[in-house]
Here is the input.
Amino acid sequence: MRDIGKMMQQARKIQERAAKLQEDLRAERVEATAGGGVVRAVTNGHGEVLEVTIDPGVVDPADVSLLQDLVVAAVSEAQRTAKQLYEQRMKELAGGLGLPPGLI
Here is the structure.
């Protein structure tokens, strides 16, 4: 019975830490640029797009497709970086609890 209580306590601890991690990631800001910095995308640690900034000098009505490609590239890179951040933090959480990778 003692082992079950200890396991339940550890499970609660894991849930609390995971919830805190999710909060922290939501507040985290990840930034990426494309086109040498003319397009900038910012996401949170969950990869949700928060902001897209476009240098007015890159706006060419005759070449909208280039601007669209730059926006997609910047957003994709920011989301990829956010995913890496999320995976790193989850790995740290699992490692700090002595759990096998992939359990959380």
Observations:
- Strands lie at 29-34, 39-44, 49-54.
- The mean pLDDT is 89.
- The CA atoms of residues 4 and 10 lie 10 Å apart.
- The first strand starts at residue 29 and ends at 34.
